[in-house]
């Protein structure tokens, strides 16, 4: 029980809903240790719980803001918007799902790509917005990814991608599946030109995203305890009809099985990736204090 | 009910049963039996044509999974000569859910890779219902490299529910195995022709399906997720699979319209399982035409063409 719970009178505590509710805007609960945290504190730590070190899911913009040097960060492919070309409708129309996602995230699709610098090194970085339809990959995600790669090819830059996705977007049918081929094909050009691709797998990286570009990094980095895999745990459980081992499909499990290179704490990603890119492209780093968010960590 | 017939073919099944019964009828009854049989056969044909002219996506998906549908090995024997199966990924194991090897197509050396389902229970289990594990994809990758090295066009036959969702498959890197194949096929220095012959199940299908020319049998399906899977996620009920099949647009016709496949290969009336030889002949002709066109291209042009082809997948607006 957290200190906050202890302060509450028993009557309020006994009401399940009230127990979990936390005042909007000011406080948040850590999903892992259930400690109630001050929002400013979470902002400052880029979504890492100061009590238990749990890496929470963060928005794509926050991710890129925390990763890239301060300064000019032009966005690539920002003008691309999804269309409902299948007129897909389940319990809800795809159109309406898109509108809702735009409303809640302020983004136009699930991938954001920016050109910027990392400790002085110019590069292109992409990040998934998981809150936008589960970070699912459809046409716009695929096209933005490839345009990011195109910029790398044109300007001889390395590429870094932070994945957070449930997989392909069902509402765009087979076209979504083909984004796996499209993004992977683009990476062959990057490899051909000797430009590094670093893939960072964050919670969660599953399905069609995991089974394409995310697993094709020259270096693959996992965030601590991120869920990473092809099939979802529930699907596997239903297929093999047994409970899955503790820690199954977590970063640590993948590291043990040789699937990723390393697990890096979110606060160390900037310096680790900068060091890797500096070595792989044999270029010097300039500065390591240009990201305001990282000054105090 | 005869298991060769699906629900929506019940009226055809009844008619065929009648024809069978007539065949055993005593000819002394006075009726001209041969004439009657010919009349009923023509009627059965018309009925089949009419039913098959307006199939729903869900009906097509039942045909694609028909228990009698020809599988990869049924086609290999009918299309190629001198097929030599090659085994193993040289890393861990041999996965019987994928068959691969070298063969000749009317004299031309080719490499062939295909998913393989089992026909009887024992074989089904051995082939893991055509759902490959990472070692299957890694065997396929080995054959792709072999094709490249010896300048053999690569032909892949797709027929899987999907890559196997199991603990061991995850431990051995199912995602990486699929991703690696997408990467390899995108730049493989030899022509690649793929054909969906039954079920094209998501990433497990695409892992051997990146190509220069995409064929699809008339009653095959190709989908980002199974209709059942989609229904249980979006409709919260697997019973809505028929609706999901329709929404996902998984038939050859829909996919041709979306320009995600290049060519539809006609099947014999009533589906490929009605006549393996006719089905195989149609597929063989389509494969041969495609390969003849592709081998004529200089390899650099072919690779540029493939990159552009993969690049244009996707529909969006730009503001």
Description:
The complex is a heterodimer of chains A (297) and B (319). Chain A has 297 residues and is of the alpha/beta class. Chain A has 12 helices and 10 strands. In chain A, the strands form 2 sheets. In chain A, strands 3-5-6-7-8-9-10 form a 7-stranded mixed β-sheet, with helices on both faces. In chain A, strand 1 (27-29) and strand 2 (36-38) form a beta hairpin. The longest helix of chain A is centred in the middle third of the chain and has 19 residues, at 174-192. Chain A is globular and about 50 Å long. Chain B is an alpha/beta fold and 319 residues long. Chain B has helices at 10-23, 33-52, 57-64, 72-79, 121-126, 134-149, 167-171, 174-186, 202-206, 227-235, 241-248, 252-257, 276-295, 299-311; strands spanning 81-85, 98-105, 108-115, 154-160, 192-201, 213-217, 221-223, 263-265, 316-318. In chain B, strands 1, 2, 3, 4, 5, 6, 7 and 8 form an 8-stranded mixed β-sheet that branches. In chain B, helix 6 runs parallel beside helix 8. Chain B is globular and about 70 Å long. The relative contact order of chain B is 0.12. At the A-B interface, strand 4, helix 7, helix 8, helix 9 and helix 10 of A face helix 7, helix 8, helix 9, helix 10 and helix 11 of B. Strand 4 (80-82) of chain A pairs antiparallel with strand 9 (316-318) of chain B, so a sheet runs across the interface.
Supply the key terms:
heterodimer; A: 297 residues; alpha/beta; 7-stranded mixed sheet; two-stranded antiparallel ribbon; 36% helix; B: 319 residues; 8-stranded mixed sheet; 16% strand
Brief synopsis:
With about 300 residues, chain A is α/β, with parallel strands linked by helices. Helices cover about 35% and strands about 15% of the residues of chain A. In chain A, helix 7 runs parallel beside helix 8 (about 175-190).
* Distance between the first and last residues' Cα of chain B: 57 Å
Radius of gyration of chain A: 20 Å
Cα distance spanning the termini of chain A: 27 Å
Chain oligomer state? heterodimer
Structural class given helices, strands, pairing of chain A? alpha/beta
Query: Fraction of residues of chain B in helices?
Result: 40-55%
Percentage beta strand of chain A = 15-25%
The main sheet of chain A comes to:
7 strands, mixed
Strand content of chain B: 15-25%
């Amino acid at each position: 029980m957290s200190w906050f719970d202890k302060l509450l009178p028993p009557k309020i505590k006994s009401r399940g809903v009230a127990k979990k509710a936390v005042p909007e805007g000011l406080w948040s609960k850590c999903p892992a240790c259930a400690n109630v945290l001050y929002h400013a504190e979470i902002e400052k730590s880029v979504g890492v719980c100061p009590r238990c070190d749990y890496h929470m899911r963060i928005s794509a913009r926050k991710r890129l803001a925390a990763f890239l040097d301060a300064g000019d960060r032009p966005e690539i492919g920002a003008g691309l918007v999804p269309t409902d070309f299948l007129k897909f409708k389940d319990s809800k129309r795809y159109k309406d799902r898109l509108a809702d996602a735009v409303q809640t995230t302020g983004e136009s699709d699930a991938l954001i790509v920016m050109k910027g610098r990392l400790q002085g090194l110019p590069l292109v970085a992409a990040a998934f917005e998981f809150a936008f339809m589960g970070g699912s990959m459809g046409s716009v995600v695929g096209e933005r990814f490839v345009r990011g790669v195109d910029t790398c090819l044109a300007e001889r830059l390395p590429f870094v991608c932070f994945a957070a996705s449930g997989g392909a977007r069902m509402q765009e049918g087979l076209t979504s599946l083909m984004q796996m081929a499209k993004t992977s094909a683009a990476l062959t050009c990057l490899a051909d030109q000797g430009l590094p691709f670093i893939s960072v797998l964050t919670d969660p990286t599953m399905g069609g995203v995991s089974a394409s570009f995310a697993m094709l990094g020259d270096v693959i980095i996992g965030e601590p305890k991120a869920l990473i895999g092809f099939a979802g745990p529930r699907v596997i459980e239903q297929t093999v009809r047994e409970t899955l081992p503790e820690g199954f499909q977590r970063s640590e499990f993948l590291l043990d099985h040789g699937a990723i290179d390393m697990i890096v704490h979110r606060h160390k990603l900037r310096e680790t990736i900068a060091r890797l890119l500096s070595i792989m492209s044999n270029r010097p780093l300039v500065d390591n204090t240009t990201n305001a968010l990282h000054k105090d960590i | 009910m005869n298991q060769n017939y699906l629900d929506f073919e019940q009226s055809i099944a009844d008619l065929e049963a009648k024809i069978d019964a007539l065949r055993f009828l005593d000819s002394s009854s006075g009726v001209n039996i041969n004439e009657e049989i010919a009349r009923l056969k023509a009627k059965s044909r018309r009925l089949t044509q009419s039913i098959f002219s307006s199939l729903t996506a869900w009906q097509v998906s039942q045909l694609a999974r028909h228990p009698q549908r020809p599988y990869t090995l049924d086609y290999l024997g009918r299309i190629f000569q001198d097929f030599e199966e090659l085994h193993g990924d040289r890393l861990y194991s041999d996965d019987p859910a994928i068959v691969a090897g070298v063969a000749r197509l009317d004299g031309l050396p080719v490499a062939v890779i295909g998913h393989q389902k089992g026909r009887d229970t024992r074989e089904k289990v051995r082939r893991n219902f055509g759902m490959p594990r990472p070692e299957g994809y890694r065997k396929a990758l080995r054959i792709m490299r072999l094709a490249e090295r010896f300048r053999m066009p690569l032909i892949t036959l797709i027929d899987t529910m999907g890559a196997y969702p199991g603990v061991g498959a995850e431990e051995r890197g199912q995602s990486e195995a699929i991703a690696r194949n997408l990467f390899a096929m995108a730049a493989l220095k030899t022509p690649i022709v793929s054909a969906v012959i039954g079920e094209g199940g998501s990433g497990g299908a695409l892992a051997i399906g990146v190509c220069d020319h995409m064929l699809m049998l008339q009653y095959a399906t190709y989908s980002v997720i199974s209709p059942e899977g989609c229904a249980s996620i979006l409709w919260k009920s697997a019973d809505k699979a028929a609706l999901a099949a329709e929404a996902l647009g998984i038939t050859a016709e829909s996919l041709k319209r979306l320009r995600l496949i290049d060519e539809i290969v006609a099947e014999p009336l009533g589906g490929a399982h009605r006549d393996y030889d006719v089905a195989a002949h149609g597929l063989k002709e389509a494969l041969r035409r495609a390969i003849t066109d592709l081998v004529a291209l200089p390899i650099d042009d072919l690779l540029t063409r493939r990159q552009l082809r993969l690049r244009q997948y996707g529909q969006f607006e730009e503001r």
